[in-house]
Design goal:
single chain; alpha+beta; Immunoglobulin-like; 3 domains; five-stranded antiparallel sheet; four-stranded antiparallel sheet
Length: about 525
């Protein structure tokens, strides 16, 4: 295209596009499809950036004309450039709608946002080429592209060639026996997978915004809307993310930015005035706050900055910049034996971690329905429930991270274990009265409770009663204050007797080392003798 000046990035993309387009005639592999997708993404970014530059350049033109007194002939030029910008936006919007429709007709995107039908060719042909009864969208696209070029040539004295060339017009294909007789639609969208079709349209979009930029630059030169003079170049890297899981791609943009040592801009963002370094760069830092996260734990937010500086003509101008960012809900990890419930009046230990915060993790905790105690070590706490439920609030540097609700369970009753001669007794058989030497009592905690709260699950029997009975009469009745009772050789025990073991008093030691009495069932354990 005559008169077009392309940046190195645009020339590189154009070269990649030509190489990849030539591969369409071959059986494309999944690797090539991925390259088409990457190429399309790069070109879409280029279109977005250059569209923004063009909008800024148009505003500079309008301001320059106003500052120069709105001369009639210059006002006409402004009106023409405004019309050009509207035509460009309308055409880009139309082409974006084509891409959206192509994606939808080829199956849309999956949950990860990737194209389901990246290899799909039939849907592309049906939509873009059409059928015998109706022409597809590619023919309408060709007409609109040609109209745009004609508008540029007529209104701004340009000599742009058609953006929608048939095979015989295209320098790449005019000598190809296979492709020279194809029209624009067949050449670009026939037997073309979705990923390549998207790249074809995006490449045309880059040419459109480049054409607009050329005309705006020439117009600005005529009006005296000169660029700012910069005397410092700095390399910059802008990564998609600083956190890259193993096995996933790292992606970053490397580019040059220019500043001026003579400009002293004033910058404000988020209600604070930014400190400007010698290179004219302001640094904005704040603690990201949470809120109403979506189902995926994401919260979209925006911050705005204003930059006030002197224009080349000496007047002040203020530029606004908006930046979108996404607050990701930090994942709270609670390492505790009891993940979903707590035991009442027990020291439930927790280790609360938020790995995503890294070195910025400085937690603060509060609870409802419990007493909270902090332990040494970041994130280590003890919760002693006193109600049916407990709500734990986790904050970091004043920002609420999460509220976690726990159900509270009463301490389960322990079991009474009775042994005769240090052995458990089969209740169906009983014990040989001649072998009777000792009876022992032990309090066994609930298994889950002991596993979850080992420091709260130590029991002692303080007092129990042993009786030797026959019918309703008891020949022996002894209160015992130790775990084991031994019979003397003079004990008068008969075969028809039975032993009754009744626990009178039990106590439990809690995590603080304090003892508390435990209410036990008064039902005695009966052991028959034979």
């Amino acid at each position: 295209m005559a008169g077009m000046k392309e940046s190195p990035r645009q020339r590189m993309i154009g070269m990649m596009y030509l190489v990849l387009t030539a591969l369409l005639a071959l059986q494309v592999s999944s690797t090539i499809i991925e390259k088409f997708i990457a190429l399309n993404d790069n070109m879409e970014q280029t279109v977005t950036l250059n569209s923004g530059y063009n909008a800024d350049k148009l505003q500079n033109i309008k301001l320059s004309v106003k500052n120069r007194g709105d001369k009639p002939q210059e006002v006409v030029l402004v009106q023409k450039t405004e019309q050009l910008h509207e035509e460009t936006l309308a055409l880009i919007s139309y082409m974006e709608s084509l891409k959206r429709n192509l994606i939808e007709k080829a199956g849309g995107r999956n949950e990860e946002g990737k194209l389901k039908g990246a290899n799909e060719e039939t849907a592309v042909e049906v939509y873009m080429l059409g059928s015998d009864l109706q022409k597809g969208k590619a023919y309408e696209l060709k007409s609109r592209l040609n109209d745009y070029c004609q508008f540029m040539n007529e209104q701004f004295d340009q000599s742009y060639m058609s953006l929608a060339q048939d095979g015989k017009e295209n320098t790449l294909y005019k000598n190809s026996a296979e492709h020279k007789n194809k029209d624009f639609a067949q050449l670009n969208f026939g037997q073309t997978p979705l990923a390549a079709a998207l790249a074809v349209i995006s490449e045309m979009e880059t040419k459109i915004v480049s054409m607009e930029n050329t005309v705006l630059t020439e117009t600005a030169g005529k009006l005296g809307a000169q660029d700012y003079k910069f005397d410092k170049l700095m390399p910059m890297v802008r990564a998609n993310s600083h956190f890259v899981p193993a096995g996933t791609p790292y992606q970053a943009e490397v580019f040059l930015t220019a500043t001026s040592s003579s400009l002293r801009p004033e910058m404000n963002a988020g209600g604070q005035q930014l400190t400007i370094d010698p290179n004219g760069i302001g640094n904005y830092k704040f603690i990201a706050s949470g809120g109403n996260y979506d189902a995926e734990g994401m919260l979209k937010k925006t911050w705005t900055a204003s930059i006030k500086m002197k224009k080349p003509d000496g007047t002040d101008t203020t530029l606004q910049v908006k930046e979108d960012y996404v607050v990701v809900k930090p994942v709270v990890q609670i390492n505790s034996a009891a993940q979903k419930l707590l035991y009442k009046n027990c020291g439930n230990k927790m280790d609360v971690l938020v790995p995503a915060l890294g070195a910025y993790y400085n937690p603060d905790f509060s609870v409802d329905g419990a007493v909270l105690k902090k332990l040494s070590g970041q994130g280590k706490i003890i919760i002693v429930p006193q109600a049916a439920t407990v709500k734990l609030r986790i904050k970091n540097q004043g920002q609420l991270i999460e509220e976690r609700l726990f159900n509270v369970k009463l301490i389960p009753k322990p079991e009474v274990e009775v042994k005769v001669n240090n052995k458990l007794v089969d209740p169906l058989l009983g014990v040989d009265y001649k072998s009777l030497r000792s009876v022992s009592v032990k309090i066994i905690p609930d298994t889950d409770f002991k596993n979850n709260q080992p420091e709260d699950a130590y029991y002692e029997v303080v007092e129990w009663k042993l009786r030797v009975a026959n019918g309703r009469n008891a020949s022996f009745n002894q209160s015992v204050h130790s775990p084991v009772f031994s019979f003397s050789s003079s004990a008068n025990i008969k075969m028809t007797d039975r032993l009754l073991v009744e626990v009178i008093k039990v106590r439990r030691r809690n995590y603080l080392g304090q003892w508390e009495e435990v209410n036990m069932s008064n039902k005695p354990t009966t052991i028959s003798l034979f």
